[in-house]
Design the sequence.
């Protein structure tokens, strides 16, 4: 395969999934990591994509000053894209939605910008910026206010007061981990406090999380398993998890067809 053909395929993959890993490209193209990195360098120099640690993202679309967000963005990208697409089908015109921080909710936000007459409440500066930049005029974005964390999430008394005064039809919640004993968890105490306020304000709570989150435990619980109405995840969810979750909430399994998309990760970090 010529270099130009490889680079076109790389661009297609990045645009399709939002982000790719070097390892996934070596498997797809049957070339060495050195060759892939050389191609990424050339594409980045041309402004066609942005290099991040271990891979690349769409130029101008998934950039962030937070390295952990970038790293999470290209973990399980095909699974997250499938989950976001399935979650999008739960959104109807005229709804009031809550979106918490995370790279899966970020992907969902990209898909709802063309839905008519939505109101979206978020405490994530990254999500609010995306929605403000790409949405049509009929979409109303409410940013909670509050104290900004290092991960660009607004927390504290102002955020809690804003959220507690609202009524949301559906909350889409990103999490770090989910397990039978601990429920749904995140890694930041203040973000967990804000997430619990979002849950209390919502008529329906939908967790969006890829299957690698099963068995992981974050620092702080935001909800028991039976406090969530729906889990949207990928079809790599283990049978054990289906048995535990099945009697407590609705499970929506999004099919993932890309090779390597359902590899289990034991990495620790923020929600993704």
Sequence:
């Amino acid at each position: 395969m010529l270099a130009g053909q490889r680079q076109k395929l790389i661009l297609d993959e990045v645009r399709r999934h939002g982000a790719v890993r070097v390892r996934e490209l070596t498997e797809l193209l049957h070339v060495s990591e050195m060759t892939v990195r050389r191609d990424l360098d050339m594409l980045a120099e041309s402004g066609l994509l942005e290099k991040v640690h271990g891979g690349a993202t769409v130029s101008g679309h998934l950039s962030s000053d937070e390295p952990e967000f970038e790293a999470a963005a290209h973990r399980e990208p095909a699974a997250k894209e499938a989950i976001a697409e399935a979650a999008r089908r739960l959104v109807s015109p005229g709804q009031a939605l809550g979106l918490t921080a995370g790279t899966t909710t970020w992907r969902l936000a990209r898909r709802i910008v063309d839905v008519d007459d939505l109101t979206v409440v978020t405490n994530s500066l990254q999500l609010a910026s995306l929605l403000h930049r790409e949405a049509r005029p009929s979409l109303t974005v409410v940013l909670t206010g509050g104290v900004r964390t290092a991960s660009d999430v607004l927390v504290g008394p102002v955020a809690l007061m804003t959220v507690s005064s609202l009524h949301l039809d559906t909350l889409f919640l990103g999490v770090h981990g989910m397990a039978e004993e601990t429920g749904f968890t995140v890694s930041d105490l203040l973000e967990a406090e804000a997430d619990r306020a979002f849950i209390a304000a919502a008529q329906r709570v939908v967790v969006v999380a890829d299957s690698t989150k099963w068995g992981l435990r974050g620092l702080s619980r935001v909800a028991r398993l039976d406090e969530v109405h729906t889990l949207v995840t990928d079809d790599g969810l283990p049978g054990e998890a289906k048995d535990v979750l099945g009697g407590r909430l609705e499970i929506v399994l999004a099919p993932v067809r890309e090779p390597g998309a359902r590899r289990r990760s034991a990495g620790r970090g923020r929600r993704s």
